[in-house]
Design brief:
Layout (H helix, E strand, L loop, with lengths): L1 H10 L5 H11 L1 H6 L20 E10 L2 E8 L5 E6 L4 H15 L4 E4 L3 H4 L1 H9 L3 E4 L10 H11 L1
Parallel strand pairs: 1-4, 4-5
Antiparallel strand pairs: 1-2, 2-3
Protein name: Integrase catalytic domain-containing protein
GO molecular function: nucleic acid binding
Pfam family, one: rve
């Protein structure tokens, strides 16, 4: 659109020219169909963990039938834990993670998206106190979250 505006200004001018060009382009189906998409962030290729529970990926799925599901995937074994939750809050998420960690041990790394529950101060403190490194996936690029996001995507198709 910037090139179009520049080219138009080289030949003509009237008040509101830029706005009119923007209106024409946004209402033009062919323009929208051939508009190039913004560049995607590079996908993070995850290093294969050497042992189970070294790195876990977490995300939320749902709502399905009035419930939210906390999805936890071990990056090494692909072991999947799905926890049914009536509501997703930071404290409830931490409570469920404590139960899982009591069963399998503490992971070294936890990968999540930048959802409000995962960037809350309470969640940061929980991870820090347990010596867990928090890796956040790229903003506007949930596919870089990896394992948990893949499960959520598959479950959304069901």
């Amino acid at each position: 659109m910037a090139k179009m505006k520049s080219l138009a200004r080289m030949h003509v001018f009237w008040p509101g020219l830029d706005q009119q060009i923007e209106q024409v382009v946004t209402s033009c189906n062919a323009c929208q169909a051939f508009q190039s998409a913004p560049p995607m962030a590079p996908v993070n290729t995850w290093k294969w963990p050497t042992q189970s529970w070294q790195r876990i990926h977490i995300d939320f799925a749902g709502p399905y039938l009035g419930y939210i599901y906390l999805v936890v995937v071990d990056a090494h074994s692909k072991w999947l834990e799905v926890i049914l939750m009536k509501s997703a809050t930071t404290s409830k998420t931490i409570s469920e993670l404590r139960i899982i960690f009591a069963r399998y041990g503490l992971p070294k790394e936890l990968v999540s998206d930048n959802g409000p529950l995962f960037i809350a101060e309470e969640f940061k403190i929980f991870l820090r106190e347990n010596g867990i490194k928090h890796i956040k996936s790229a903003v506007k690029h949930p596919a870089s979250d990896g394992e948990a996001e893949r499960f959520v995507k598959i479950s959304n198709k069901q």
